[in-house]
Amino acid sequence: MEKKYSTQIEKEVELLRNEVEKDKVELDREKKEFIESIKQIKKEEIVLKENSLTLWERIKKVMSGS
After folding, report:
1. H helical segments located in the chain
2. Residue 52 scores a pLDDT above 60
3. pTM to 2 decimal places
4. Which residue pairs from 2-10 have beta carbons closer than 8 angstroms and sit at least 24 positions apart in sequence?
């Protein structure tokens, strides 16, 4: 009976190892997909371009206080 119990434990350990390996493969695949999706994003989509004010607009802004 002890032999069968250890065999059952060995089977369960092997199943767990297989699941861990599957999870690693899936994680690596998802990482690659995420990296590729990030690479496709353009810088302009992330960083908002700040409107540069002319000298007159800056003076007007300082004078008006807003």
Report:
1. 2-39, 43-46, 55-64
2. yes
3. 0.55
4. none
